[in-house]
Fold STAS/SEC14 domain-containing protein.
Amino acid sequence: MTRWPIVVITYGGKPSLRELADHLHEVESRVLFRRQPFLQIVDQTRGEIPDALKRALIADHQSKMEHLYKRFCVGEAYVCSPQMHSAMIAVFWQAKPLYPYIFVDTLAEAMTWARAHWAERNKA
């Protein structure tokens, strides 16, 4: 999951609401509650499009954790299909990220963006 400060999260298959809630709780406990700056990559290439209930759960998580994301998340890259991109835009209508984000086609592109974004942020 983590190559701190770059955190790679994989969303795969078709998780149940409970599995998705557990995943979001893991993000809270292993990433957000560290209270250290990080950059997140979400690999959604093997995940099915979340339905409206799952999108609402993700948006609720984003809203509840907004203060921690705002303070510690310095950027996020989503690796996904155009269809998943559209689903995430629907989530962002409910809970827009307060940090820079990008949608890319490959994990390699996401890592390149993440490293460059981290380096730019940390220039003195």
Notes: The helical segments are 17-30, 52-64, 66-72, 82-94, 107-121. The chain has a mean pLDDT of 92. The first helix runs from residue 17 to 30. DSSP finds five helices and five strands in the chain.
